[in-house]
């Protein structure tokens, strides 16, 4: 499965549970909270001030 920046965090976590460790490693501690379920990877990266390309590379590694 390829993760894209327009996928929601909830969708990614459900389809690829090992992504939680990557997201937490980037400082996204609220991967299970209600707002994260509808927030896209791109939106979350922007809110947290993260490098989207680095996050995507790690999620898809």
TrEMBL record:
**Boundaries of every DUF1858 domain copy:** 3-56
So which domain of life are we looking at? Bacteria
**Listed Pfam families:** DUF1858
What PANTHER family does UniProt report for this protein, alphabetically? Answer: BSL7085 PROTEIN, DUF1858 DOMAIN-CONTAINING PROTEIN
Name of the protein? Disulfide oxidoreductase
What organism, scientifically named, is this protein from? Clostridium tagluense
């Amino acid at each position: 499965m390829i993760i894209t920046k327009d996928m929601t965090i909830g969708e990614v976590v459900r389809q690829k549970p090992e992504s939680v460790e990557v997201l937490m490693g980037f400082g996204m501690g609220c991967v299970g909270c209600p707002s994260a379920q509808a927030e896209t990877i791109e939106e979350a990266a922007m809110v947290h001030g993260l490098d989207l390309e680095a996050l995507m590379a790690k999620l898809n590694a």
